[in-house]
Amino acid sequence: MTWKEHVEIVEGDITALDVDAIVNAANETLLGGGGVDGAIHRAAGPGLLAQCRALDGCLTGQAKITDGHDLKARYVIHTVGPIWRGGSHGEAALLASCYQTSLALADAHRLRSIAFPAISTGVYGYPWEGATRVAMTEAGAYLKAEGSIERLIFCCFGRPMFDLYQRTLAAA
Ligand code: ADP
Known about the structure:
Blueprint: E1 7-11, E2 21-26, H1 35-44, H2 46-53, E3 63-67, E4 75-80, H3 91-108, E5 113-116, H4 128-145, E6 151-156, H5 159-171
Parallel strand pairs: 1-6, 2-4, 2-5, 5-6
Antiparallel strand pairs: 3-4
Helix pairs in contact: 3-4, 4-5
Bound molecules: adenosine-5'-diphosphate.
Adenosine-5'-diphosphate is lined by residues 13-15, 25, 35-37, 39, 81, 117-124, 155, 157, 161.
Domain Macro: 1-172
Pfam families: Macro
Organism: Vineibacter terrae
Protein backbone atom coordinates (compact mmCIF):
# COMPACT_ATOMS: atom_id res chain seq x y z
CA MET A 1 0.00 0.00 0.00
CA THR A 2 1.32 3.40 -0.87
CA TRP A 3 0.13 6.49 0.94
CA LYS A 4 -1.93 7.51 -2.10
CA GLU A 5 -4.25 4.55 -1.60
CA HIS A 6 -5.45 6.15 1.63
CA VAL A 7 -6.43 9.38 -0.15
CA GLU A 8 -9.91 9.88 -1.60
CA ILE A 9 -10.95 12.88 -3.64
CA VAL A 10 -14.67 13.56 -3.77
CA GLU A 11 -16.78 16.38 -5.09
CA GLY A 12 -19.67 17.75 -3.04
CA ASP A 13 -20.84 19.12 0.26
CA ILE A 14 -18.57 18.21 3.16
CA THR A 15 -21.44 18.45 5.66
CA ALA A 16 -23.00 15.30 4.19
CA LEU A 17 -19.99 13.04 4.69
CA ASP A 18 -20.11 10.06 7.03
CA VAL A 19 -16.62 10.21 8.53
CA ASP A 20 -15.12 10.42 11.99
CA ALA A 21 -14.31 14.11 11.53
CA ILE A 22 -14.85 16.86 9.03
CA VAL A 23 -12.51 19.81 9.06
CA ASN A 24 -13.92 23.32 9.11
CA ALA A 25 -12.11 26.20 7.41
CA ALA A 26 -13.04 28.57 10.22
CA ASN A 27 -11.96 32.07 11.19
CA GLU A 28 -10.14 33.08 14.38
CA THR A 29 -13.34 33.75 16.31
CA LEU A 30 -14.67 30.20 15.72
CA LEU A 31 -18.12 31.79 15.85
CA GLY A 32 -19.15 30.96 12.31
CA GLY A 33 -18.92 32.74 8.99
CA GLY A 34 -19.64 32.21 5.32
CA GLY A 35 -18.56 29.50 2.92
CA VAL A 36 -17.91 26.06 4.32
CA ASP A 37 -17.98 27.42 7.88
CA GLY A 38 -21.55 28.66 7.47
CA ALA A 39 -22.60 25.40 5.83
CA ILE A 40 -21.15 23.35 8.70
CA HIS A 41 -22.82 25.45 11.38
CA ARG A 42 -26.18 25.28 9.58
CA ALA A 43 -25.97 21.50 9.25
CA ALA A 44 -24.61 20.88 12.76
CA GLY A 45 -27.22 23.03 14.50
CA PRO A 46 -26.95 25.53 17.37
CA GLY A 47 -25.17 23.12 19.68
CA LEU A 48 -22.01 23.57 17.62
CA LEU A 49 -21.96 27.34 18.06
CA ALA A 50 -22.60 26.94 21.78
CA GLN A 51 -19.61 24.60 22.08
CA CYS A 52 -17.44 26.88 19.93
CA ARG A 53 -18.17 29.87 22.18
CA ALA A 54 -16.39 28.10 25.02
CA LEU A 55 -13.20 27.60 22.96
CA ASP A 56 -12.10 31.24 23.02
CA GLY A 57 -11.13 31.35 19.35
CA CYS A 58 -8.22 29.77 17.51
CA LEU A 59 -5.00 31.18 16.08
CA THR A 60 -4.25 31.01 12.38
CA GLY A 61 -2.52 27.72 11.57
CA GLN A 62 -3.90 26.01 14.68
CA ALA A 63 -6.89 23.68 15.20
CA LYS A 64 -9.47 22.84 17.85
CA ILE A 65 -11.96 19.96 18.04
CA THR A 66 -15.65 19.84 18.90
CA ASP A 67 -18.41 17.31 18.65
CA GLY A 68 -20.29 16.95 15.37
CA HIS A 69 -23.73 17.63 16.91
CA ASP A 70 -26.38 17.10 14.19
CA LEU A 71 -23.81 16.09 11.55
CA LYS A 72 -23.13 12.49 10.57
CA ALA A 73 -19.50 13.19 11.44
CA ARG A 74 -18.67 12.52 15.11
CA TYR A 75 -16.34 15.49 15.34
CA VAL A 76 -15.59 18.81 13.71
CA ILE A 77 -11.98 19.93 13.68
CA HIS A 78 -11.91 23.70 13.29
CA THR A 79 -8.78 25.15 11.77
CA VAL A 80 -7.99 28.69 10.69
CA GLY A 81 -6.26 29.06 7.36
CA PRO A 82 -4.13 32.06 6.44
CA ILE A 83 -5.53 34.98 4.51
CA TRP A 84 -3.50 35.25 1.29
CA ARG A 85 -1.44 38.45 1.34
CA GLY A 86 0.81 37.84 -1.66
CA GLY A 87 2.66 34.77 -0.45
CA SER A 88 5.54 36.34 1.49
CA HIS A 89 3.78 36.47 4.85
CA GLY A 90 4.25 32.86 5.85
CA GLU A 91 1.06 31.73 4.16
CA ALA A 92 2.41 28.35 2.97
CA ALA A 93 3.80 27.42 6.40
CA LEU A 94 0.58 28.49 8.11
CA LEU A 95 -1.53 26.48 5.68
CA ALA A 96 0.72 23.45 6.16
CA SER A 97 0.29 23.90 9.90
CA CYS A 98 -3.51 23.75 9.50
CA TYR A 99 -3.23 20.28 7.99
CA GLN A 100 -0.59 19.16 10.51
CA THR A 101 -2.45 20.35 13.61
CA SER A 102 -5.77 18.96 12.35
CA LEU A 103 -4.20 15.56 11.71
CA ALA A 104 -2.45 15.62 15.08
CA LEU A 105 -5.80 16.22 16.77
CA ALA A 106 -7.33 13.39 14.78
CA ASP A 107 -4.51 11.14 15.96
CA ALA A 108 -4.97 12.20 19.56
CA HIS A 109 -8.60 11.07 19.31
CA ARG A 110 -7.63 7.90 17.45
CA LEU A 111 -9.84 8.84 14.49
CA ARG A 112 -9.72 6.70 11.37
CA SER A 113 -11.38 8.90 8.75
CA ILE A 114 -11.23 12.63 8.12
CA ALA A 115 -12.45 14.96 5.38
CA PHE A 116 -10.82 18.27 4.52
CA PRO A 117 -12.23 21.15 2.50
CA ALA A 118 -9.82 23.23 0.41
CA ILE A 119 -8.73 25.45 3.31
CA SER A 120 -8.13 29.14 2.50
CA THR A 121 -9.12 28.82 -1.18
CA GLY A 122 -12.43 30.68 -0.82
CA VAL A 123 -12.75 34.16 0.66
CA TYR A 124 -9.22 33.87 2.11
CA GLY A 125 -7.93 34.00 -1.48
CA TYR A 126 -5.10 31.45 -1.44
CA PRO A 127 -4.24 30.48 -5.05
CA TRP A 128 -5.74 27.08 -5.72
CA GLU A 129 -2.68 25.35 -7.14
CA GLY A 130 -0.39 26.30 -4.29
CA ALA A 131 -2.99 25.44 -1.68
CA THR A 132 -3.61 22.05 -3.25
CA ARG A 133 0.11 21.27 -3.33
CA VAL A 134 0.39 22.10 0.37
CA ALA A 135 -2.64 19.92 1.16
CA MET A 136 -1.23 16.95 -0.77
CA THR A 137 2.29 17.34 0.66
CA GLU A 138 0.94 17.29 4.21
CA ALA A 139 -1.36 14.37 3.48
CA GLY A 140 1.59 12.39 2.12
CA ALA A 141 3.82 13.24 5.07
CA TYR A 142 1.13 12.20 7.57
CA LEU A 143 0.17 8.99 5.79
CA LYS A 144 3.78 7.89 5.33
CA ALA A 145 4.27 8.26 9.09
CA GLU A 146 1.21 6.01 9.68
CA GLY A 147 -1.00 7.68 12.25
CA SER A 148 -4.54 6.58 13.11
CA ILE A 149 -6.16 7.98 9.95
CA GLU A 150 -6.81 5.34 7.30
CA ARG A 151 -9.11 7.37 5.03
CA LEU A 152 -8.10 10.91 4.22
CA ILE A 153 -10.73 12.56 2.07
CA PHE A 154 -10.39 15.81 0.17
CA CYS A 155 -13.87 17.20 -0.37
CA CYS A 156 -13.85 19.54 -3.35
CA PHE A 157 -16.60 22.05 -3.98
CA GLY A 158 -17.09 21.98 -7.74
CA ARG A 159 -15.58 20.15 -10.66
CA PRO A 160 -12.61 22.51 -11.29
CA MET A 161 -11.30 21.97 -7.75
CA PHE A 162 -11.93 18.22 -8.03
CA ASP A 163 -9.93 18.07 -11.27
CA LEU A 164 -7.07 20.05 -9.73
CA TYR A 165 -6.88 17.69 -6.74
CA GLN A 166 -6.86 14.67 -9.05
CA ARG A 167 -4.00 16.12 -11.09
CA THR A 168 -2.07 17.09 -7.97
CA LEU A 169 -2.43 13.63 -6.43
CA ALA A 170 -1.31 11.98 -9.67
CA ALA A 171 1.79 14.20 -9.80
CA ALA A 172 2.67 13.81 -6.08
P1 ADP B 1 -11.62 30.22 3.55
O1 ADP B 1 -12.06 31.40 4.37
O2 ADP B 1 -10.67 29.31 4.32
O3 ADP B 1 -11.13 30.59 2.21
P2 ADP B 1 -14.19 29.31 2.41
O4 ADP B 1 -15.29 28.63 3.13
O5 ADP B 1 -14.46 30.66 1.84
O6 ADP B 1 -12.96 29.33 3.44
O7 ADP B 1 -13.67 28.38 1.23
C1 ADP B 1 -12.87 27.24 1.43
C2 ADP B 1 -13.23 26.20 0.38
O8 ADP B 1 -14.41 25.52 0.78
C3 ADP B 1 -13.53 26.79 -1.00
O9 ADP B 1 -12.85 25.99 -1.97
C4 ADP B 1 -15.03 26.64 -1.13
O10 ADP B 1 -15.43 26.47 -2.47
C5 ADP B 1 -15.27 25.38 -0.34
N1 ADP B 1 -16.64 25.13 0.17
C6 ADP B 1 -17.64 26.01 0.38
N2 ADP B 1 -18.73 25.37 0.85
C7 ADP B 1 -18.40 24.06 0.95
C8 ADP B 1 -19.08 22.87 1.35
N3 ADP B 1 -20.37 22.90 1.79
N4 ADP B 1 -18.42 21.68 1.31
C9 ADP B 1 -17.14 21.63 0.90
N5 ADP B 1 -16.43 22.70 0.50
C10 ADP B 1 -17.06 23.90 0.53
